[in-house]
Fold:
Amino acid sequence: MSQSESTNAHSDKPRKELIFVVDDEPLLVEMAQTVLDAEGYQIRAFCDPENALQAIEESDRKPDLLITDCLMGSMDGLELIDRCRRVQPGLKTLLLSGTVDESFLRQQAVKPDKFLPKPYRVKTLLKVVEDILQGR
Structure:
């Protein structure tokens, strides 16, 4: 799946935050994209972390939040977070994983703003996203 972008169709509403979603599992990217898009967020979805990094480097509008899987083929989520923050210091991040838990993060130099284990509930994802974006 190549990158895709959707925008808020309700032009009378204030523009919502731009969220980049990165996961090497297309079905999980599509699910997160559908859920977040329904809440009015602008979404750019990627199955390849290299494409997400390139988009952050080249885009005039930078994301307000990066949601990334932890373990992916060409680049893991922590490396993606680190490299994206070099381009966009202060980038808010959410790390997802079905294979590691929060204790894994204690040993890492790079720290996401929040961690969410997979599988997650849609309501939980939405609450965590809102908390990060609101600085909570």
